[in-house]
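Crash report, auto-generated. Payload:
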Amino acid sequence: MELLTIDIAHVLAGALLLTSFMLLYQDRLSGLINIYTLHAVILSLSVAWQAYYQDAPHLYFTACIAAVFKALIIPFSLRRIIKRLRIHRTVEVVGGVGITMLIGIFLVALSLVVMLPATASADPLSREDIAFALAIVLLGLLMMVTRRNAVSQIIGFMSLENGLILAAAGANGMPLVVEISVAFSVLIAFIVIGIFLFRIRERFDNVDLSELDRVRGGRS
Amino acid sequence: MSSDLLLVSNALIGIPAAAAIAVALEPAYRRSAIINLCASGATFLFALVLLVVEPESGGYLFVDDLNIVFIVLSTFIGFTTSVYSASYIDHELETGRLTTRNVRFYHAMYQSLMCAMNLALLASNIGLMWVAVEVATLTTVLMVGMYRTPHALEAAWKYFILGSVGIALALFGTILIYMAAEPVLGQGYDAMVWTTLMSQAPQFNPRMLNVAFVFLMLGYGTKVGLAPMHAWLPDAHAEGPTPISAVLSGLLLNVALYAVLRFKMLLTANAAAITPGPLMITLGLASLIMAAFMLYRRGDIKRLFAYSSIEHMGIIAFAFGMGGPLANFAGLLHMTMHSLTKSAIFFSVGHIAQAKGTQKIADIRGLTQSHPALGWSLVLGVVAIIGLPPLGIFMSEFLVVSSTFARQPLLAIPLVFGLLLAFGALLLRLTGMAFGEPSRDHGEVKASMWPVYAHLSLVLLAGIYLPSHVVTWFQNVARLLG
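Recovered output after restart:
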């Protein structure tokens, strides 16, 4: 029974990692939002499973935040934003999918190599979860580096943050997880509101960050 | 925790929090500026009380010799900046760069920032500290983007993304510290509280601590502005309102540094873990030399001093990385002197930019003739920041360099090289701005100069005579830092 519990936790964490890979190569914004929704749903299941396994009722709350805020409200508002900004049909140019995937695989290997020996004495459940979580964090960073569009960068950041919540939930009995996930939700809400408010109504033509680079001209 | 101390530390967090709500509800901007000023002043007075009560820990807050230094320094600069900000904001309202609604928001954010910084410094718990640093980041992002120009929004966006990635990495490190402590201290809060963490640190899994420290160093190091994670810093300093540049350089960088120092102490306590020093030395030297080179090509006065902040944070990280009583003492002194001097420089720079209507160095000339008070304050500030005697930074830099020569002579070479490079660059820029034929003025400025004078006279005083109380106090803290 113990083994099955651990296996289920690993399957969920692994699914989260796979979804991160899907985010890496998805070039349509609407598709990206759909995959992010899936990411959030898996996260919420995974956290709920940890709550059940560790018998930690406060984690159910974190799972609820993930389900309601990240899987419903955020995708809904992002969809509205890209429609308002008229970029919902945009196909982003994601340079070198093959290379990005290879780097992604390398990052996963790296996080396993770094984390597994370091956590040799830890609980088997949290041990592999934290390795998966690090991989998700690194993939999120990779996505933020490879994308030019602000909306996809934010989705990259949110997937990174999902990895952190997975790690925090996986650390046995860690207090303040709820507070941390609330703090992060506030941060993300600000980012999303930020793109919405500061977009075209102000002076940008679109939310492509290369536009921002253009603005830099003539400054030092 | 004794009731006095509890009252004081709660006041340090409660006053700014209450003031933030009060100014948010107050539509008249003059009155909100006064509330802002009074609240910052009251917070500073309460911080002074910490100097006389016996430090101890308890509840979710704790006070020891280390964080008292940071709290007194940051509440003092928070107070003087609020004085300066009142006159700065007045001018911005007159010229129409800001509306009264903006100002209301600005004051609310200012007090929230003070609240978050005090909470980060006082938190007894690594998770709570992280949350506070995150809130501090958020409030400064909102203030940096206040002018809503494309440049300001770009700066805010860049700061937001890099800052968020930084704190995300720091959170991962925090989780790892918890996981390292949990087998020893058991589940729950004990494994996140500084006092218990410090006492049990020798038994933690060293490999886990190593990995955790790398994440914490990179994460909080981003917020310290260490190279190569410094990209947000010049933009955020240059595009936001100048009081915020002063607060960023004078306080927020220190708060992030405080977090790094705490975790450094934790690693030093565990003999089997890596020594955190070399990592800090490397990042510090890299920041120093990179920033020193960058200083030569700056065309924007606020950017110039932002790079100088990176340079000095590099020196401070270097000093703390060296460790030992003397280098730690030098690091603490340098941090204090840098905060005071740099915020004084930004105070003058803000008024200079208002007087000349530009931040371009090329368009600012002959300040000592056209605006003697502002011009000479800038001269004195820059003379202090480049480390000329008899000002305080000369003394702290001298201590850093001499302790490096005594212990690691080879490391002193890049250090001195970086210092001289920065010296030349700032002197070069200063002569152009301060002397010669004055350039055209943009309009009248009612400058409030006493915050500048207060900071600079403290720096001068420290350079000439450092009271023995302060010396013993800093020596105690330096010993604590290991």
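Post-recovery validation: The beta strands of chain B are 57-58, 61-62.
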